[in-house]
Amino acid sequence: MKHARIQFDGQAHTVTVEDEHLRLADGRLVHEDQVTWLPPATGSMFALGLNYADHAAELAFSPPTEPLAFIKSPGTYTGHKQVTWRPDNVAYMHYECELVAVIGKAAKNVKREDALGYVAGYTVCNDYAIRDYLENYYRPNLRVKNRDATTPVGPWIVDAADVPDVSNLKLRTWINGELKQEGSTSDMIFDIPYLIEYFSSFMTLQPGDMIATGTPEGLADVVPGDEVVVEVEGVGRLVNRIVSEADFFKNNKASAA
Amino acid sequence: MSHALHDVATGTLFGVALNYQGLLQQHEAAFHEAPYKQPPVKPVLFIKTPNTRNHHEGNVLYPAGVERLQPGPALGVVIGKDASRVSAEDALAYVAGYTIVNEISLPETSYYRPAVKAKCRDGFCPVGPELVPAAQVANPDALGLRLWVNGELRQHNTTANCVRTVAQLIAELSEFMTLHAGDILITGTPEGRVDVQPGDRVEVEIDGLGKLTNHIVAE
Which GO molecular-function terms appear in the entry (chain B) (predicted)? Predict the structure, then answer.
């Protein structure tokens, strides 16, 4: 089953997905064109850097010996079919297609062999980065990775039981319909069981927390007007559109008023 | 944690590192070398995840297998309304009030990579004892701050020594991410962090905000 969060008639709802329709808790069925998609989970996101050997090489890094993790807070998430802004006057903003494991129950000191039992399901994120803003302090720093509406997540969470082999899923990114990035979760350096064991060895992962497992090689710049689609086979296809800084904040102010 | 603080300050915990001039100066030479290459240009930020939340008189577990543990006395700024792209002149109007944060951490030997393992352990962010309304704090950038361990003064400084004022931080952060009502900005820990041991009583005191007390307990 697929679970999503949507905005409908001015209210947030938790729904199940039935093809192009969404089933509300009260039984009503609404078409996806009638709703605004919200991020399907709202916990902390533990995002992995350099977790695919080919991508590490692309960025001229040797693969890490311990997971390189950074944290994202809910303000940076946005939903399926929403917009993300490219700041004015930057040279390089790129997408990152990632498989995300969503934690289903509190996880502390979990061993690798038990780890997948703590996963509620899987979703997809596009972990955009503005490379111009990289500084060598807590790198990748928040100004690169924790910007408003710059981490699309969704469209939904697929139950773990419906993903038979999470370690062999194709990842793909398209810009305006052109395939730009292609890889497989089989090339991860630290897999999901390892990562759950790692994080839970020093902290408690909470229900709704997400582990964004990193991206393979094949990065490219995106500009206002681009439609960017990231897909993880068997999990979901997450659509996002790039807008200019001026358009984003103009619309933002309009919706806030 | 008082009810007012507990009800209001439920958002994200954003930390600022290297925000005391003395601390930055200690590292000045190293920050011109690899891997840093140049001193920080923008505020150096981190996130304390929600599992780190702790409260006045709460126990802080000293993790098994860890060699050193350090309290981090810091002024906490509680955001009162959503702040997106606010100027430094207007920034303090977005503050609900102030509180004390003990930003507990394992010692940091490097600032190059995010300090998740050092800073995001359960209970590593006591906040309290209460939310002091902004109107009662005449100048958040001139508050004395003291760390007491078992009644002995071990660290003292003043927010007047911060690299960036509270208003400057709100302006620079809200340029790229909205600070939401209920978020807490942890405005930095001064140089001279000390080690604490299981059994220690750790108190952070800030002028006008009271004293935040916590107990270090072996895991």
Answer: hydrolase activity
